[in-house]
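Repro:
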Amino acid sequence: MKVNMANPGASFNHDYLYSPGIVFSVNQQQYDAKYILTSLDFLRHLLDYTTEVSAIELKLKPNVNLASVQANIEKILGSDFVVQNRYQQQEDVFRIMEIEKLVSYLLITFILMIACFNVIGSLSMLILDKKDDVVTLRSLGASDKMISRIFLFEGRLISLFGAFSGIIMGLILCFIQDKFGIITLGGGNGTFVVDAYPVSVHVWDIVLVFVTVLTVGFLSVWYPVRYLSKRLL
């Protein structure tokens, strides 16, 4: 581009853009202060473009394999072009969300470990309360190992019931939030793109929570039964 030193302003293309009185805003500074919506012809005139484009966005049909389509496009275009999906374009944002999700999982697991002390206490009191029944079982021919398995089985039933009931209640709450939006964001009033706190249920998250609850619950049951069995049985 040649610059006219006598009149630098003449070296740049300029035109007027009139607003119809409609403003598109997502209430996020990084987008509202950086992007505007305009016609393709207007922008090409300002940038001296004819048929060139800086980027092309594609929307795929539902149930299409995103990784396969991306790999095929990269193979066709070669290394001179950058092909990114929505997550790769905003990698930092989604990485922060994944970190927040991991921290939330660790905090909930820590709370679960503290809550398991209630199970340990109730199971310990149960073993102490059933001393007479243990004597009866032993008189009927039950071994100490079998009696310990009875208490272990009962403790594991408590953990299993807690896991199932907690997951069912969680799914119900997520469904209510998704349909009715009980928990709002910042009081609404257009401050955010969505007024209600968004929720998304994934199968692998449910499996992870279920396995975590069972693992922590089973370990919390195993120790008191083993310890008290050595002292009382």
